[in-house]
Structure to design on (330 residues):
């Protein structure tokens, strides 16, 4: 029988070694541990140092996911790297392919900000469902610390660096039970890491824009409002496609943006707190990495077991948002 179903069979994660706690941030901006902890749930975050890069942490997470899945790098057909902070604007997935020795794999980056992992999951699934590829390595990784304005207390308290990875494999039964993806570009201006052009005249009459990317800007209140409203809706839609009800969810893994968002979404969906996975306190918002990082930790801790039903949702810049319902393991 042809295997056209999708199973998510292994996970791995990696974070930089340096940790910055809230107290440390008070040396940079006018803030307090109390304010950050009560408004966001974050206590500390990891920051990539001089000898760390997206490539290094994403490769480490990938090696762990490959081992957990019981495959080898040579088995991988496709590497998808969900990131907004590549080491190279041409992409970082190819560098990871080389590090892993995944010689058969085609590799490319995918950018959908904090929704990147969920968008990547659905993208990977399409290649498997069409019978094109059997083993896909999906990585969510970001080093937002490179792009944070460390003088802006509205944003610098939120973000951290990290990487998480999963292996998706062709399977007789389909464990990706339902999904829904959304974009609203009219709200793009609420969260940006924008390129700012500066005109350079090459020769008379021929101008090019040689600018730079600018630090992250965010309208926190609007992003908060958007998340609390749209995330429950999109999870409901994904559940509908999966033909499941909310009480059949074993675990809710939301993009780790703010504990208040996690609590509000769970409350709106009527999901009890003990089913909500959260590691915000330790890592802050790690963008595309946050879902696979939280997933992998819960798997390592023995919380998530094969057969458990997981509802996951990513949301953020774009604005983009999406949800996927899947059953863990083969
Ligand atoms: O991946 C998606 C990315 N983004 C998000 O998920 C962000 C979603 N938004 C949020 O998480 C929240 O809006 C924040 C945590 C960013 C801000 O929390 P808030 O409860 O919306 O605070 P606020 O912006 O309404 O600010 C309240 C007060 C203000 O003072 P006044 O005007 O009331 O005197 C701010 O100036 O808190 C002040 N403030 C701070 N005070 C201490 C803002 N940032 C800080 C800070 N420390 N770091």
């Amino acid at each position: 029988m042809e295997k056209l179903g999708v199973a998510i069979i292994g996970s791995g994660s990696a974070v930089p070694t340096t940790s910055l706690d809230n107290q440390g941030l008070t040396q940079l901006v006018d803030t307090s541990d109390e304010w950050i902890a009560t408004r966001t749930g974050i206590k500390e975050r990891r920051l990539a140092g001089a000898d760390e890069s997206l490539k290094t942490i994403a490769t480490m997470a990938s090696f762990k996911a490959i081992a957990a899945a019981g495959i080898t790098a040579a088995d991988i057909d496709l590497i998808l790297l969900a990131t907004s902070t590549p080491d190279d604007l041409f992409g970082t997935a190819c560098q990871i392919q080389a590090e892993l020795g995944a010689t058969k794999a085609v590799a490319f980056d995918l950018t959908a900000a904090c929704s990147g992992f969920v968008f990547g999951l659905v993208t990977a699934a399409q290649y498997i469902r069409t019978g094109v590829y059997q083993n896909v390595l999906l990585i969510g990784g970001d080093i937002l610390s490179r792009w944070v304005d460390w003088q802006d207390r509205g944003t610098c308290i939120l973000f951290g660096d990290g990487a998480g990875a999963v292996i998706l494999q062709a399977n007789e039964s389909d464990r990706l039970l339902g999904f829904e993806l959304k974009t609203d570009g009219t709200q793009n201006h609420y969260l940006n890491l924008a390129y700012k052009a500066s005109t350079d005249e090459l020769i008379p009459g021929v101008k090019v824009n040689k600018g730079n990317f600018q630090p992250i800007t965010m309208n926190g209140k609007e992003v908060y409002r958007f998340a609390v409203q749209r995330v429950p809706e999109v999870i409901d839609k994904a559940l509908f496609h999966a033909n499941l009800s909310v009480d059949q969810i074993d675990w809710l893994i939301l993009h780790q943006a703010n504990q208040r968002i996690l609590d509000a979404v769970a409350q709106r969906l009527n999901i009890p707190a003990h089913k909500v996975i959260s590691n915000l306190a330790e890592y802050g918002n790690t963008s595309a990495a946050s879902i696979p990082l939280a997933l992998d930790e819960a798997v390592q801790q023995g919380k998530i077991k094969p057969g458990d039903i997981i509802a996951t949702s990513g949301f953020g810049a774009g604005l983009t948002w999406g949800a996927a319902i899947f059953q863990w393991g083969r």
